[in-house]
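Provenance

Sequences were taken from public entries as deposited. Structures were produced by running a predictor on each sequence independently, with no templates supplied. The record for Multidrug resistance protein MdtA from Novipirellula caenicola is shown for reference.
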Amino acid sequence: MKFLIHALIRVCIPVGILIAGGYGFAVLSVNTDQEPSEPAEKQVLRSHVCSLDTRDFAVKIETHGVVGPHNHVALSAEVTGTIQSTHSIFEAGAFFSAGDLLLEMDDRDYQTALDIAREQHKLAKATLKLAQAANDRMQQLLRQDSASTSEADAIFASLVQAESQVEVTASAIEQAERDLQRTKIYAPFDGRVVSKEIGVGELVSPGTVLGEVFAVDYAEVRLPIAGRELRHLKLPEMEGDAPVDVELRNAIDTSSDSVWRAKIVRTEGTLDADSLELFAIAKIEDPFSLNSEHPVLRIGQPVVATIFGETLKDVIAIPRGAVRRLDKVYLIDQQKLTLRSLTIDPLWSDAEHVIVPGQTIRNGELLATTMLVYAPEGSPVEIIPEDDGPVSLAGSPPEMEATP
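Predicted structure for Multidrug resistance protein MdtA:
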């Protein structure tokens, strides 16, 4: 009996599993009626636009530099002496003109040396006069056969020696005069004092630095120019080449409206080893406004320079804010009001514009200037009137501006 019960259980369990599976399949395989879904409404993008037209565009290259003097020298003593006096124009910040007396040394020793040299010169000339007279007499005796040749040679040698001594003492006078002049330090050019390194009573020797000065007739600025910008400039390379106009502005106080006119007059012969930039030298006339009315431009002043380059003909200037991913813009078909993207190849770009050839875009074509995060090709576009404010599309916050 137990055997029959166990056998029945073994048969019933698999049969039950098969029946349950069949029932489940029958229930799940029944097709349910589904209502047809409505197609999603096509999203309309909204954007501000601007019309693009060909025009000429003047290239302006912005760079930076620091104003420096074209001639900055250290005044040094050429003779040994004690500083006797310094003049008021030889103080830090003071202006001076070429030839002005800056300081004086005690010159008594050099005046004495000059007096001695002059007296020695007088003595040498008197000796020469006697030697010439002796030589004349000896020549007369030779003609009368009253003197030997050796005696005549000795007298002539004395004459040559006397002539040489006159020349030596004359040179000594010149040297003594130069040394006496060097006890007074004169301004070598129109300039300004950077520093005074000595004082009255100080003993100086040749090579002692007395102070530093620089010229004020004009100043210079070294301006780095990137290699990609050089093709839009015609920089002076040889003497006689036309200079290039530059405008300089204060790099420290950007709110200042001061502008200084300068001209690039030459370029350096090699590229910078680190940046591979070429340095151009701009010249600013009368930086301290001594003979003009422009604001004072001080040595060491950092400046922002705008260099005026070539004029690009028949090009289109695209607002930089409308360029996406460096080289893509969105244009709008005026008839269909649909969107299309265009990859551009810029000729030039600056902080405000990206310049492309005129044949890249048709005249009058509309450019989407609003940031479009979701912009499928051919999407319908609604043009936002100019009176409306900025619009954020596709859920993007207004501050998320695409990086040009």
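The longest strand covers residues 302-319.
The helical segments are 2-28, 108-143, 149-181, 227-230.
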